[in-house]
Design a protein that fits this description.
By secondary structure, the protein is α+β, with helices and mostly antiparallel strands. The protein has 15 helices and twelve strands.
């Protein structure tokens, strides 16, 4: 049974670690406000260092402390980021402010592939994000397709001159996680229950690009982009569902019985067919899976193609952060024959038709594409007369899945090269498509910026 002194010791060290976590989150919120960011950053560093001071104060009152702490001390001393944290704290206390530098980097997003990027550049070289936009090379910015469908992602990062290759909040997130592991073990040593949050990695420390970035339209440099925001679960009213959609138990039995990713896709699509038939529409939804278990359902509406390119990249990054290994998108889509679309996009075809679609992929490289043509009532076009038979395609490259496959490391480059050629044959600007593909396979490919000192071929879902 722990003594009152041991409870107090645990409380003291946990409280200080919680303060570090709060200061980290405060700094993250002020990422684009330099003066406030630096204040929170430096407070976070000094508070983190004091966690070990408070731990070591327990040396005289906790039996076996030296033997317990010795291996932890050794691991912390061998960690270069922990050493940086210690040196940074000493500099702040004895010398003054850290020599932090704000840098920016741009990437042009104009497809599901990676786009051309700039090097990291001192932010002070540009008076505003629009100045950065104007500094991009014209041979890219004046391409009509880029102007119509492109987005400029401007990322900002803060670095310390003593740790120039790692963003400072990422470094401090590492420090926090290492300290949390030590404190969690300290609780076990004293047999004191630790709070649940102590063993959980804070989601805020796995930031998406959108948390440290600005999005500008390649059309005119205006603000663009979107954000993923959480929404609390709503209680499902079974009686209401049964009244509106009829007996749906067989559909959910099929869902529960699914033993493979493909069976799961078919089960989800059959549910979507019922919703589409009854409601006359189906909002675009992204489904995240771990195995066959649904973990997140995300409304994925978007105003245009440029936003969709950005959205799919951010969803892929979110999937990687959350440890997701399967993704599905269910949505309505335009369809057209390749010869009927002047641009290669079905949405631009004058005689386009509608379909309900499901695009699915997982971390093992499985790809499944299901679709069913939509036939609407002539006098009531908002209502569905019937859905055609479900069509199935498997194993082909699906451009929309590329960001996920890139994050999972399962891109089939040969299938995408073949798809690129087919896309170009069907009307896409071949030069643009080939160049984008080359850039995506060359992580070192960069574009230069000039500056002055500051004063899917036939289906569209």
């Amino acid at each position: 049974m722990p003594t009152i002194f041991e409870y107090e010791a645990v409380h003291a060290v946990i409280s200080r670690l919680a303060q570090m976590r709060q200061l980290w989150e405060d700094a993250a919120r002020e990422y684009f406000e330099p003066s406030r960011f630096v204040v929170h950053l430096q407070s976070c560093i000094t508070t983190g260092r004091s966690v070990t001071f408070i731990l070591q104060k327990q040396k005289g009152s906790v039996a076996g402390f030296d033997d317990w702490y010795a291996p932890h001390r050794q691991k912390l001393a061998e960690d270069p980021i922990m050493r940086w944290s210690q040196q940074a704290r000493n500099f702040i206390e004895k010398e003054g402010d850290l020599k932090t530098l704000s840098q920016v980097r741009g990437e042009i997003i104009v497809s599901y592939y990676e786009g051309p990027v700039t090097e990291w550049i001192p932010q002070a070289l540009f008076a505003s994000p629009f100045d950065f936009f104007r500094a991009l090379p014209r041979e890219i910015t004046e391409i009509p397709f880029v102007q119509a469908n492109g987005t400029l992602l401007i990322e900002r990062r803060w670095v310390d001159d003593q740790l120039p290759d790692l963003e400072v909040l990422e470094a401090l997130a590492h420090v926090y996680k290492r300290l949390a592991a030590v404190v969690d073990d300290f609780c076990r040593l004293l047999d004191v229950p630790a709070p649940d949050w102590l063993s959980e990695e804070p989601a805020s420390m796995d930031a998406l690009a959108m948390d440290r970035a600005l999005y500008l339209s390649m059309r005119d440099g205006s603000a663009a982009g979107l954000r993923v925001l959480p929404k609390p679960d709503e209680k499902v009213r079974k009686k209401m569902l049964r009244k509106r959609y009829g007996k749906h138990e067989p559909l959910f039995r099929e869902l529960r019985a699914a033993n493979s990713f493909e069976e799961l896709a078919h089960a989800q699509f059959n549910i979507a067919r019922r919703l589409m038939t009854v409601d006359g529409y189906h909002e675009p939804f992204s489904y995240f899976f771990k195995g066959n278990q649904l973990t997140s359902l995300i409304l994925s509406d978007h105003p245009d193609r440029a936003t969709r390119y950005v959205m799919m990249r951010d969803l892929a990054k979110l999937a990687k952060i959350e440890g997701v290994d399967g993704y599905m998108l269910i949505a309505e889509a335009w369809m057209a024959k390749p010869t009927d679309s002047p641009t290669g996009f079905a949405a631009d075809a004058p005689n386009r038709t509608e379909a309900l679609t499901l695009i699915a992929g997982n971390s093992t490289g499985e790809v499944c594409y299901l679709w069913a043509p939509i036939e609407r009532k002539r006098k009531q076009p908002s209502k569905v007369r019937r859905l055609g038979e479900t069509q199935v395609e498997k194993g082909k490259a699906v451009f929309l899945l590329y960001p996920f496959q890139k994050e999972w490391g399962c891109v089939d480059n040969e299938s995408y090269r073949a798809a690129d050629k087919e896309a170009a044959r069907r009307g896409f600007d071949g030069d643009i498509w080939v160049n984008l593909r080359a850039m995506s396979e060359d992580p070192g490919h960069t574009i230069g910026v000039t500056h002055e000192p500051s004063s899917e071929a036939t289906h569209d879902s």
